[in-house]
Amino acid sequence: QWVTNHADAHGQAKKNQPLLWMVIVGFIAYVFSLCRMVTVEYTSSILVQLGILNSDFFDSMIRIPLHAPIHWIYSVLMDVRGGHSPNSYSYKVYEDMTLQFVVFMMTCVFVFFLLWVLTNVCKVFKSCCMFPWEMKWWGRLVISFDNLTYWVWFWTSFFWIGFNIYLAVSPAQFHFNNVGMMTFMVVATFLNYALIVTNSMRFSIMESVDANEIAFLSMDNIWRANQLFFMVGPIQGFSVFTGTRNFLYYLMYGQDIGGWAGGDLTQVSIMIVKYWTSMIIVTSCLCWIYLFASHPTADEYQSRRPGCIIFSFIAMDVLHPCVYLWTLGNNLSNEEVSKMHFSAKICSTRWWKKFWSDMLLNECTTNIFRYVAPVYNFMLPILVFYNSYFGVSAGFTLVAVGAGH
User: Which of 18, 71, 134, 308 has the lowest CB atom count within 10 Å?
Assistant: First the structure.
């Protein structure tokens, strides 16, 4: 309805529709620039290619002054590494890579600066201007954009689970420096937890009241956030599939789609999460079994073991809700258990549900699982320094799933 301009929006919400389209176009342009950065070799800004900046001005102010610090950084890293090796790339490759990244970041900063200037200029004409005149207005538009498009990213949990399964069953080869990847992961971990600390401080001094939000974060929130990332993917995928199908029925046949006709939606969601989390846990165990049963070589074992370890951490995150959903509604009392013989217990589904519920859903075990996610987020950089095969999977999983994602 929003895309076709038939949404039931009034007042300021109606006026924000073209501005939301501007945010969408800006996001698409940002994604395009990222793709361009990793696929095209260049050392000049796209603003120069578009004619917004003069080429000579860009070279004199940015490209030439950056040569000296880039060369110095390269020399320091080479001293740490012990000089060139037969597999080392030439200095020109590293200089171009670094310069390309710096130019990309400076271009993003420059575009943001132009947006800030334009926004403040519009403050003078705010009585007759529909363009945002405060940066917090852009913040609200970005939040609205996220609320409208969050379902587009439902596939990310499937990707990370599939990627770790692939690394656990298939030997992989990556070429990077352990220290560099460890540094990247330390910085990512620091930024993630800095976000948590700053939000907690805002809550503690009651600034969240002025911002009309509740931002209390604790270890429970970190744990629940990790669980949520891996649990909601199938539900969102089911919603996208069902919504698309119903819309096509309405579009082609004029069918009324005003109500839900697929049974109890709550039970459907519970079943999806129950079997999805069970699949993750069982697959994690099968990855370890396959690792040892396939008799890998020493190099293959070192390559595949990190995928098994990281996937096991993912399984530990979803173990608690999985057990809860499978044991939900079990009413076997302790008195009934005391009257049951051993053979009756082994053959009783109710007894097994109570056994696993008592084993895993108690306060002690819950507290252990609660701190697993923060602990392994801090341990991943150390594991990368110990074994480089942790780098790719652990690094990008940390960015996608880590605290504050």
Answer: 18
